[in-house]
Design a protein that fits this description.
single chain, DEUBAD_dom, nucleus, NFRKB, two-stranded antiparallel ribbon
Length: about 190
């Protein structure tokens, strides 16, 4: 949407649409939304302050999208050329590497060509990540929280490892100092 394009030049603020759950006991995010993770967009968007939200933006998509087996017919190079305005194309081109031929990259990306270790477009639109709900805002937030918990656990274990190593080195230092007799000669420890 043209009105939303200017928003990417400022700080991203996700707007989640909510609805009642099946039992009418709680509020949940609508199913027809996909979330864009901040960690994936931060290299491409200028930002002023650090945000604690793991979501950069929420995009509503038509429910019919979830019924498709693949988005490759909807998102193609022909659609890029014929249905997007210049402003929309320029906004999306910011997410591609600079100083490269954007036309050939887009044809390869939207055509499904392999980029060394796969095609991110194909993973997103052809694989089941969209249809299985892996891009739903709640799933994106849960994945980010899991990633942060794993990172914290890793650094906690690394800190314990280093602390134990320092303790052992200090113990060896004390044993080394105790293994000398008064004249400075070494005593063999058995």
């Amino acid at each position: 949407k043209k009105g939303r394009l200017q928003r990417y030049d400022s700080i991203l603020r996700p707007n989640i649409s909510l609805e009642w759950d099946d039992k009418k006991k709680g509020v949940v995010s609508k199913r027809e939304q996909i979330g864009l993770a901040r960690r994936q967009l931060i290299p491409f968007v200028e930002h002023d302050t650090y945000r604690h939200s793991s979501l950069a933006d929420i995009v509503s998509v038509p429910k019919e999208i979830f019924d498709l087996n693949s988005l490759s017919d909807v998102l193609s190079y022909e659609v890029w050329q014929s249905h997007l305005s210049d402003e929309e194309r320029n906004m999306l081109l910011r997410f591609l590497p600079k100083h490269l031929n954007h036309d050939s990259i887009l044809q390869a990306l939207l055509g499904g060509d392999n980029f060394h270790f796969g095609n991110p477009f194909m993973k997103w639109c052809v694989s089941s990540s969209l249809c299985l709900g892996k891009l739903h805002p709640d799933s994106v937030v849960h994945e980010d929280q899991s990633r942060k918990a794993l990172r914290k656990s890793y650094f906690t274990n690394l800190h314990k490892y280093h602390h134990n190593m320092i303790g052992k080195l200090q113990l060896w230092k004390e044993e080394w100092a105790d293994s000398r007799n008064a004249e400075g000669e070494f005593v063999q420890n058995i």
